[in-house]
Amino acid sequence: MRALILHTTDRNSKNFAEAMVNELSKQNCRAEAIATDQAGSSPVTTAQYQVVCVMSAFQGFWKPQLPAELDALLRRCSRLEGKKGVAFVTAKLGSGKALKVLMARMEQQGMIVEDFAAVRGANEAPALVKRITKLVPDGPGT
To answer: What is the residue-averaged pLDDT of the chain?
Structure first.
């Protein structure tokens, strides 16, 4: 399985993305992480990935706001139509609403959101990787 992890530039998201890449590699999966500040202005192709994970921080409680850089990164990604997606947000007050907003943005780009979670830290990566590897029928190593 090949997975792409798109994440925002805050410290928690970076740590979580690194932990996910490490855990996926332990499961014989190929994974790559791209931060919102790394992608530049060139298009990001997702053709070679079976799963695209998006990790984001957010602000606000009643009406959660996702970072504008994440929207720009999602718009620059090509070949997302029909791709399996996984949405993650930082766990805090209002994370349920933030997950709904993130999943709606991902679905606007054509992704099929198969799983989602509010994440407290990088220590949750092993359990989440097990859930992600079950999404692809071929499993780890493909």
So the answer is: 93
